[in-house]
Design brief:
By secondary structure, this protein is mainly alpha-helical. The chain has helices spanning 2-33, 40-74, 84-111, 119-125, 127-142.
């Protein structure tokens, strides 16, 4: 059981790192959308976005998935029948992973000076990971079904 608890700790730390990036990256997009193309500010945002995505977010997402799947396997969750909350959580994590992919595409678009969306779009988009995170935490802690 010690290994399970260490695995759970690793999972939680990876989730925290991933969510920090998922919450911060769209905020960078808000400011980057207002920067003049080719300006020093725009170029600085490109570096910040790329490093956040490649050095923190993507590795954290990978560790989150690996540790989470290992927890499911080691915890014997696969054979249980009353884990609707877990199925919902996995569906939301798949959605969050898709959003991560969309963010990667947005980082690429900004890097190539192809962004056509206004800052307001990114302000709204910034709320999506927050909502998903709140629902996932509620599912894991409360296990409503």
């Amino acid at each position: 059981m010690d290994a399970y608890l260490w695995l759970k700790a690793l999972h939680v730390v990876a989730v925290i790192a991933w969510m920090a990036g998922m919450l911060y990256l769209p905020r960078l997009f808000v400011y980057h959308a207002g920067a003049t193309v080719g300006s020093e500010t725009s170029e600085t945002f490109k570096v910040m976005e790329r490093r956040l995505l490649k050095a923190i977010m993507t590795p954290a997402m990978i560790v989150t998935w690996i540790a989470g799947l290992a927890l499911i396997w080691k915890g014997g969750w696969l054979g249980m029948s009353d884990v609707g909350w877990l199925h919902a959580k996995i569906a939301l994590v798949v959605a969050l992973s898709g959003l991560h992919g969309a963010f990667a595409g947005m980082v690429r678009a900004f890097a190539e000076d192809r962004n056509r969306r206004p800052a307001g779009f990114y302000r709204i988009l910034n709320e999506v990971p927050t909502v998903i995170m709140l629902i996932v935490v509620a599912l894991v802690i409360v296990k409503p079904f």
